[in-house]
Design a protein that fits this description.
globular, 317 residues, PGM_Phosphatase, alpha/beta, Rossmann fold, 10% strand
Length: 317
């Protein structure tokens, strides 16, 4: 993705991005018996909120334009917070040994990427997931790829630049269904994490994304450890934090969230839902009829349930 072409694509990409968000809404769950995990089993998942951002500083001071800052960057305090992340008690075991993450999974906004770069070893692989972007639609919560690539170049992360530029061209255009798709997006992410070979994974994300999915309010640079096993995410006390949005290993939402493809208040679980492939076909036909150019990479993502390979690229330093 060449940064010079981004602004010209924005206008005609909105419909395609809306279809991307809608692909997470109303999925029909796959029946699966999930064994009850124990705290001694499963993967260690460390959820980390980014360090303090410029918009956080502006908002705290009462600046009404705080969330008009495009793809808000870390503040100087946020930089310091990020550099101290590995000192957080969550990464120290009871025996005093440090738990070194094997993988960083990161939202591709500037503040989350810089938090990951500054906070963890430079040789730790990074995977960017656009479906982890913040829920908001304000400029501060929306990526600006030209600013993102500039920041990565300043950090000297060449391979991360290449990965960032290879993301689907419309990844940063959220569309009107973005907020309501948060639970579905999170379920898909958990399913994907379950398939990864790594046993210790850091997920660097955003306040509202975590609040809506983990039911917790994270402070800047806060770290919380969870255990993921058999499709169940548990906190350090063994509590199933996804009790209201049970997922299967197929990564499909199994709660009764209203679907735009169903009528009235019926759940997508029992009526009115289109299969993912049918939904994609319908969306593509609509896009063709309205003259909107579709992204082939986005189509491949949506037509492969449970996989987001085209949205997830691994980066070595």
């Amino acid at each position: 993705m060449a940064s010079g072409r981004l602004s010209g694509r924005h206008a005609h990409s909105v419909h395609g991005a809306t279809n991307f968000a809608s692909s997470f809404v109303g999925r029909k769950p796959a029946p699966l018996d999930v064994p009850t995990p124990t705290l001694s089993s499963g993967k260690k998942i460390f959820f980390v909120r980014h360090g303090e951002g410029e918009h956080n500083v502006a908002s705290a001071s009462g600046n009404q334009a705080a969330y008009l800052i495009a793809d808000a960057q870390l503040s100087s305090k946020g930089v310091e917070q990020s550099m101290k992340l590995m000192q957080h008690p969550a990464f120290c075991s009871a025996s005093g040994h440090m738990c070194v993450p094997e993988l960083l999974v990161v939202s591709p906004l500037r503040r989350t990427m810089l938090t990951a770069i500054l906070g963890f070893n430079s040789d730790t692989p990074i995977i960017l997931r656009p479906d982890m972007q913040e829920n908001g639609l304000t400029p501060a919560d929306c990526a600006q790829p030209d600013l993102g690539i500039e920041m990565l170049r300043k950090q000297g992360r060449t391979s991360l630049c290449d990965m960032y530029e290879s993301l689907p061209e419309d990844w940063h255009i959220k569309g009107s269904l973005w907020k309501r798709s948060v639970s579905q997006r999170f379920a898909t992410i958990l399913e994907w994490l379950e398939t990864r070979p790594e046993q210790s994974i850091v997920v660097v994300g955003h306040h509202d994304f975590f609040r809506c999915t983990l039911n917790e309010s994270f402070e800047n640079a806060e770290v919380r450890q969870y255990t993921l096993d058999g499709g169940i995410l548990r906190d350090m006390h063994g509590k199933d934090v996804m009790s209201k949005t049970r997922i299967s290993l197929a990564g499909l939402l199994m709660s009764g969230i209203r679907s735009p493809t169903s009528s009235g208040s019926r759940s997508p679980m029992n009526s009115g839902s289109l299969s993912l492939s049918h939904s994609v076909e319908r969306n593509l036909n609509n896009m063709s009829a309205t003259g909107v150019r579709s992204s082939k990479s986005m189509v491949r993502v949506m037509t492969t349930p449970g996989r987001l390979d085209m949205l997830s690229k691994t980066s070595a330093p």
